[in-house]
Structure formats: C-alpha cells, structure tokens
Target: DUF1684 domain-containing protein
Amino acid sequence: MTTTAGTTAADTTADTTDGQAFAAEWAAWHAAREEELRAPHGWLSLTALHWLDEHATAFPQLPGTWRATGDGGVEISANGELAVGGAPIRGTSRVEPVDGLPGVLVEAGERRVEVIRRTDSYGLRVRDPQAPTRTAFAGVPAFPVDPRWVVRARFTPYPQPKKITVGAVVDGLQHFPTAVGTVAFEIDGQRQELIALAGRDGGLALHFRDATSGVTTYGGGRIVQVGAPDETGYVTVDFNRVVNLPCALTAYATCPLPPEENRLTVAIEAGERS
Model:
C-alpha cells in the first residue's frame, strides 16, 4: 500500500520512528538541562547581587564584612561564620576571583556567597537553596521539538581567534568573549550568518537574537552550543537545543549580550522560550 506518490507505508513508519526517537532524545536532554537548573546552588538559587567598593561593608542577612582591595582581590572579615573550602574564616581572608569566570564560593551555612569579578568590578552573588525561584521551579517552557530546525552551517574560521567586546545585562559592565569565525546557513531560503564564539570542548557557541527576541523568547538573546566543525568545514546546528542564559531566569546574573552582528532576520521558533 502507498500513502503518497512514491512513498510506501514502510517509509512512513520509518519517518515516524525516526521522529519519535529524535523527540525522545531531545526530551532526555531537556530534562537533564532542567535538573541542572534545580541544583541546590545553581542559577535558580540566586537571591541577591551586591557590588563592592574599597570600604569594608556588611550586607543584609550576610555574616562578616566585604571589600574590594583595588589590586585584584576581595577581603573578607569574619569570626568563623564564613568558610572557604571548608576552612572557617577567623579574622581576614583574601580571595581573587577571575574576570568572566565563575566566582570563588564562600560558605555561609547552607548558602554560598559567590565572589565575582566583572572587568574591574567586584560583587557578591548569594546562592540560597531555599530561594523561591528554585523551590517553585516548574520547568523551562520550550517550543515543540521539530527536526526542521536542525541545519547544516558552513564555518569560516578567522585567521586567528580574537577577543571581542560585548555589552552585559548590567549597565556599565562589558564581557570579552573569544570569536573564532563565522557560521553561515539558510532558514526558509534566507541566508543567515553569525559570529561564532569559542564553545565547550573545542566546539562553537552561537549567541544571537532573532525575530522572536522580546516577543516569545528572552529579549537579551539565547545561545546554542555546537560541536567542532567536521573535515569539510561544516557544523550541525540544532536550534531545538537553544537555551536561555541565566539572566532570563534571575535578576542577579551579569550575562553578556550577543554580538551586535548576531541578529537573525527570521523567527527561530525552537528551543527555550521566555
């Protein structure tokens, strides 16, 4: 029996089976993503963001005092209520967070105070497992998974990777990601191009806005991780796996904004929504 011209029932069954397997694989990935967000001290646990200056300052509901030293460090004064790596702070201790990287975690009971550096600014992010954003988390909404959003893209590397400057969701801050080239692809017959940033495990990160940004998806853009280019210079981009940056989930993140050039002219109705 045929279902359409040139298509057999076996072909249709195979397509259905492949589609079900694709959806199941995505569902497992998305469940793992949500479980990561539920981590006791993950992004959903943030309850405060305090910026430091050279004055030793006490903050509401935090033990000790904290100050930026002006030479790359943060001094913490406490009487045993705080600890770093399990060692209580008695008197004054110094930590040196690195710009753009996760901060140094200071233990305050079940909470963690993340000491961060962003360019030449220093701050504290309080991570509390009892934060309502974590305890009431019911998942991240997403568009229906669809294989049509898996595209092949041509990667063109730069002669040398280069640092670029992008804005941040916090006024006055900047980020300096490494751009490694461009990726070009077509969606609905329209050519699109994005600056590719250095990603995980030798892959690429595509941080972009599109026609859904600020409408059905987070206005500050979304990001998708892509594997390393193959021997022909192509990568596979699965927009079903586009995710929100932490700033879409909490008011206490300092996320980068996408490069200004990374604005797609089409609506990517795939991946995570607002």
